[in-house]
Specification:
The chain contains three helices and seven strands. By secondary structure, it is an alpha+beta fold. It has one domain.
């Protein structure tokens, strides 16, 4: 899969999750619905596959306003640790409210790329999406400085600022 000319290495499960969330932007989905559509109907009772957390970055001074974050299951065991390194392929998807008016304005996506993609930013790729899942033309996808600036204070959790519940 290529996004803005950058090849993304998503697992089939991560891709199905990204597509499901993009197709249902602005809607509330139950764990059962997500599990059934991403992992299949036999997994509808495995709610631990889907982790939803309220990020510590969701303060009034956050560029995203209030937000909700989904992480790929490959870091499920890591988020409880005080520090960790996310493995390549980790995906974080955030719904954000830039205006602080309680209305979702879009989705922000972070994907951990192979070593060497952006060593100064611990190899994270960023893009901002409309609620329909299409990539916003501004800022250009990839190494988005405002995203880097927000996340650089979370080096202990590999730039994932929303892994601790407020």
């Amino acid at each position: 899969m290529f996004v803005a000319g950058v090849e993304l290495h998503l697992t089939p499960t991560e891709y199905r999750l990204l597509v499901l969330l993009a197709e249902n932007a602005g809607r509330v989905l139950t764990h059962r619905h997500i599990l059934s559509h991403v992992w299949g109907p036999t997994h509808s009772g495995h709610s631990h596959y889907v982790r939803v957390r309220w990020p510590s970055c969701a303060r009034k001074d956050s560029p995203h306003g209030m937000q909700q974050v989904w992480y790929s299951a490959n870091i499920r065991e890591l988020v409880e640790l005080p520090s960790f390194a996310a493995p390549e392929g980790t995906v974080a998807i955030k719904r954000f409210d830039m205006e602080g008016d309680g209305t979702d304005d879009g989705l922000a996506v972070m994907i951990k790329k192979p070593a060497g993609y952006d060593p100064a930013n611990n190899d994270w790729y960023y893009d901002m999406r409309m609620l329909d899942g299409s990539i916003m033309p501004e800022p250009p996808a990839g190494k988005i400085q405002m995203c880097i600036d927000c996340h650089k204070g979370s080096t202990a959790t590999d730039y994932l600022s929303g892994t601790k519940v407020n």
